[in-house]
Amino acid sequence: MKECNQCGKCCVNYSNGGLSALKSEIEYWEAFRPNIFSYVSNGNIWMNPATGKQMERCPWLRHLPNENQYICDIYEDRPEDCKHYPVTINQMVKDQCEMLEEKDLIYPKQAQKSLDRIMSESRPSVDNR
Q: What are the structural domain ranges in the chain?
C-alpha cells in the first residue's frame, strides 16, 4: 500500500452530505471554531451559510494550484468521519483510492491489516476480518 498522495477522492466523494459530525464536535466548533460552525445547520455539516442548502463540496477542501492534490484547511479539527477514512479495502476500491497497489487487490486481507496499521492513530482498527 502506498502512502496517501492527497488525491482528494475521499473528500470529494463524501463531502456533499455523506459525512456527519459528532454532537461533541459540533459543540466544540460552536464554542471555539465559529468559522467551522457557520457551516453546520440542524446537526448537518457543510451546509451553505447563505442558503442553508447542502454544499456540493466541503468548504475546507482546497485544491492546490497546478497540482493534483488537495489539502484540508481544518485538518486538526475535521470530523471523526474524516479521521476514520478509509475503513476498509472495499471502500478504497469503490472510491478509487490511489493508495492501493495491485498486490492489495490480490491479497485484500493483508492489505486490510496494512490499512489498519497505517490508520491506527486516526481511528480504532476494524476487527472481524
A: 9-118
